[in-house]
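Objective 1b of the project was to move from sequence-level analysis to a structural picture of ligand recognition. The entry below was assembled by the postdoctoral researcher (A.K.) and checked by the PI before modelling. It contains the amino acid sequence of the target and the SMILES of the bound compound, zinc ion.
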Amino acid sequence: MSTVKIAVLGAGGGGSQIVLQLANMGVKHIHVVDPDNIDESNLNRQFLFTKGQVGQKKVDALSKFINDRDSSVDLTISYRRIRTVQDALHETANCDWAFCALDEPPYISQRIVNRACYLQKIPSVYAFSSRDSAKLFFVHPGKSGCADCLLLQNNSDGFRKMIVGLQSSNFTPMTPTISPNMTLEASWIVRRWLDDFLNRKNLTNILFRFDFNRMEEDPFKKFKQMPECPTCGESTDKAGDDLWKLISIK
Ligand SMILES: [Zn+2]
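Corresponding predicted holo structure:
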């Protein structure tokens, strides 16, 4: 635990609390990436940040918060916006794990991180939330399905219509609006990550969902490695072209 190096991509409500909980658990090497400044509208759910820090970079405020609590944590920061696979490769290089806590552009940022982690053969965790629930899945390159496999399995007319809807509206992620839900979500994610990290359970090929109304984890939804996956598949079949055009990555 003290030697593992983790990249956390995104320092918003989810990412910042994941960093805090990893540090509390004894993770000593964390690299956190986020280009955004703290906005007053973030403060209701991002309790690590204060009113006096509005306008500062999120990663700067987070770094100060973690260092004030425990100066033995080696936390490095980056202001890079992850727009390409190359960006994600750069920010996850030399890391043992990556947490993807980015939610925009929808699906594209996850695809980029997934591709980079697959190329570097490092395991990754994907967390995303809506007002009513949080979702989570793990990818172990070469051993499990990946984010593109999951997308390919969800591909349908309805799914593509929803993506077009997200892209044409001014998409604002509906994250849990209250701070306790955000904390609960981060605890759930980090606890599940620990299960995986310590090999307590096989958590691959599962989409986890936590329901904020019932305050419990739902039954698991399985997915699988897809031979036609553009990231981890080997088949030359061009399945899903209509989907990949909508959420293309470079
Ligand atoms: Zn795949």
